[in-house]
Design the sequence.
């Protein structure tokens, strides 16, 4: 069974802390993505990567950075957490091949910044 | 950029049929997806269209018209467990390779007795 695994289901962090959200996929997918999901705003793309060591800004990259040192792992970093980064964070991966290759999502990390 | 519109909420009766519409504007169109998301869970894949027409998969069907920038998801024989958010997402080709999905804000479907 193919999987995207996010390291934590729930996290509570303090304002100003550096936060790491980890995501690992076992499908040998080229593309990996980080979204946040907020009520009324839907899924918004933070950063994505289509190759090792490659990264691209999504629609809302401010306050975030990412790292992709290995194909299977994509990390989201909050350099200095703020309360407006309280959200559900979803990692996803996909193949580059054409066809019905949508995203496979992880189960999400609900981050609360206090 | 992209603009994806879908209704915020819909209510339907168990056993009925419901159609959820999605309109989009995009460049580099490379497919449209529908996902289902139950509260507190990750989205799960429902359907994919890249050519015009209807794709049927059991109780779920999805339609695409590329010239109109329009899609709909049709759910038949509604069940209470179909109460969920339904996300329309458009895939774009990226000039540097790979692909990217942009999601609409989702349609919250409530199925009532």
Sequence:
């Amino acid at each position: 069974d193919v999987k995207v695994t996010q390291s934590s289901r729930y996290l509570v962090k303090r304002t100003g802390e550096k936060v790491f959200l980890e995501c690992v996929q076992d499908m040998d997918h080229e593309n990996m993505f980080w979204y946040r999901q907020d009520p009324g705003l839907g899924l918004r793309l933070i950063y994505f990567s289509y190759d090792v060591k490659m990264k691209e800004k999504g629609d809302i990259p401010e306050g975030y950075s990412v790292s992709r040192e290995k194909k299977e792992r994509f990390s989201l970093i909050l350099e200095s957490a703020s309360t407006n980064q309280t959200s559900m964070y979803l990692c996803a991966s996909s193949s580059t091949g054409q066809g019905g290759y949508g995203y496979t999502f992880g189960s999400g990390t609900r981050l609360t910044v206090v | 950029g992209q603009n994806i519109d879908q209704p915020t909420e819909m209510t339907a009766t168990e056993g009925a049929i419901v159609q959820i519409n999605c309109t989009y504007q995009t460049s580099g169109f490379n497919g449209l997806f529908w996902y289902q998301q139950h509260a507190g869970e990750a989205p799960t894949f429902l359907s994919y269209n890249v050519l015009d027409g209807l794709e049927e998969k059991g109780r779920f069907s999805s339609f695409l018209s590329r010239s109109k920038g329009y899609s709909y998801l049709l759910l038949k024989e509604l069940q209470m467990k179909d109460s969920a958010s339904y996300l329309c997402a458009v895939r774009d080709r990226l000039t540097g390779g790979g692909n990217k999905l942009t999601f609409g804000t989702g349609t919250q479907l409530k199925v009532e007795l």
